[in-house]
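Milestone 3.1: sequence recovery, worked example.
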């Protein structure tokens, strides 16, 4: 009978070899880079079209984006789900994906996924046919107010670009003109439509520019709208929300000009949502993955084969084993005491969202306030369940108060306090309170400081660029991490803290 130590050694060696072997296979055969410095930032964008069918044939048309403003489309994938599928090329480089089916009896979701990256820094948009603006049909009082606004701004501007900028500034003033205030209320605070109608009344060609604001890990995102105005020589972009001219760096254009992005017949309750994830890969490697998926069977088990929404989730989940390894090393080899095993990991995850300094301040404020309130509750002799539930509610109220106060003060970063795991914070307060009563404040300080130290080290490891790159692109390395943790689990020697404690015995 093989003893447990030999079994663990064999299993750990097999796991480490398997993880490293699969990683080398993907690096050599599939040309995936081992170092993050070899890549370009490649975005994977996935559109999700959902609808419920009605009677009769189903026809779904989705306008497809083009490579504009320096962006290049690497690869595209369509999921048909039993539908007939075709791509219709239209004038002016506009294409439409069309799914058709004779009948359908259940709600359906259709997917379209593409990989994009910025190939050029130049964001200049190509020329577009200029259409003569058509003045809007308005009520008499609306038309009178519109005419006064257009005339006043026309006198203050020197050209179409300055007219657009002045109009944007008028819409964003705190103390607005009576005509502007009346028009905004009559348009339901739809500043984009008001801008389009005002420009048309001033005989300035303009149209809506729809696209996606690229933010890593976003799910269920909808299309955003900008304004594109013809200055007489070129097209300029304006943001109705910020009153700024120019195309934002993180804006990917999906549709330029009029018309609907999604057309549906034979269905109802349609929705178009997007999921985004940013990957650290060279452009040719991402393109090769799509082209050689059948040649390399291992790609079927790659994170990239998942829907983008799940890719974003796993991008964070795959970092947790790294934090677990840090906790194991610090507790078993160094001898640092922590308040629980998983609390430092969850705090480190919160630090990734809040940044380290802000996260430390928020965490200490919550724990300090919670301990003070918990000390009062202990004098009321409540049962454990009621006491923990009370602490959870108090923690939520503290987080809400902190978020509102920080927003009023303009400290937007503190708003990420909501990323702290509420139940874990409440249970930590409860455990520290019990520890204070049983062992005293010195033990609370030791375990609390140890937990924060391990959480900070786990955060530094998880936020490392190389670690992020390896965990997402080579998830097989989790097997090697598992093997190392199993080996550490059989360690029974002295910890570093114990060597320091008994240092006098060595002499």
């Amino acid at each position: 009978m093989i003893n447990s130590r030999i079994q663990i050694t064999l299993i750990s060696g097999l796991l480490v070899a398997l993880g490293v072997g699969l990683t080398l296979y993907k690096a050599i055969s599939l040309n995936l880079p081992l170092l993050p410095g070899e890549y370009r930032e490649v975005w994977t964008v996935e559109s999700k079209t959902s609808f419920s069918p009605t009677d009769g044939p189903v026809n779904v048309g989705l306008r497809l984006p083009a490579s504009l403003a320096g962006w290049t489309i690497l690869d595209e994938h369509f999921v048909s789900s039993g539908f007939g599928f075709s791509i219709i090329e239209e004038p002016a480089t506009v294409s439409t994906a069309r799914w058709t089916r004779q009948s359908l009896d259940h709600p359906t979701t259709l997917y379209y996924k593409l990989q994009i990256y910025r190939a050029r820094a130049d964001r200049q948009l190509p020329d577009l046919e200029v259409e003569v603006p058509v003045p809007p049909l308005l009520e008499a009082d609306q038309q009178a107010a519109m005419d006064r606004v257009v005339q006043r701004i026309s006198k203050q501007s020197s050209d179409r670009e300055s007219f657009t900028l002045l109009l944007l500034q008028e819409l964003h003033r705190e103390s607005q003109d009576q005509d502007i205030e009346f028009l905004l209320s009559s348009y339901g605070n739809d500043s984009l439509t008001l801008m389009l109608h005002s420009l048309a009344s001033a005989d300035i060609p303009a149209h809506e520019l729809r696209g996606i604001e690229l933010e890593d890990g976003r799910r269920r995102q909808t299309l955003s709208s900008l304004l594109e105005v013809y200055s007489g020589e070129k097209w300029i972009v304006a943001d109705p929300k910020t009153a700024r001219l120019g195309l934002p760096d993180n804006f990917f254009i999906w549709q330029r000009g009029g018309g609907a992005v999604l057309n549906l017949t034979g269905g109802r309750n349609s929705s178009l949502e997007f999921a985004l994830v940013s990957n650290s890969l060279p452009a040719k490697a991402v393109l090769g993955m799509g082209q050689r998926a059948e040649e390399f069977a291992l790609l079927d088990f790659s994170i990239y084969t998942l829907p983008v929404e799940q890719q974003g989730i796993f991008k964070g989940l795959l970092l947790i084993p790294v934090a677990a390894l840090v906790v194991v090393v610090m507790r078993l080899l160094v001898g640092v005491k922590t308040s629980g095993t998983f609390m430092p990991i969850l705090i480190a995850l919160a630090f990734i969202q809040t940044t380290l300094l802000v996260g430390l301040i928020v965490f200490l404020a919550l724990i300090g306030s919670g301990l003070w309130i918990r000390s009062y509750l202990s004098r009321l002799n409540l049962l454990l369940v009621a006491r923990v539930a009370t602490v959870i509610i108090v923690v939520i109220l503290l987080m809400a108060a902190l978020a509102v106060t920080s927003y009023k003060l303009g400290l937007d970063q503190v708003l990420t306090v909501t990323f702290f795991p509420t139940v874990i914070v409440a249970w930590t307060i409860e455990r520290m309170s019990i520890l204070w009563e049983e062992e005293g404040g010195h033990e609370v300080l030791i375990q609390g400081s140890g937990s924060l130290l391990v959480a900070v080290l786990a955060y530094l490891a998880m936020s490392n660029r190389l670690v992020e790159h390896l965990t997402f692109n080579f998830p097989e390395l989790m097997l090697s991490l598992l093997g190392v943790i199993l080996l550490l689990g059989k360690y029974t020697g002295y910890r570093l803290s114990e060597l320091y404690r008994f240092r006098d015995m060595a002499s």
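The longest helix spans residues 4-29. The longest strand covers residues 267-281.
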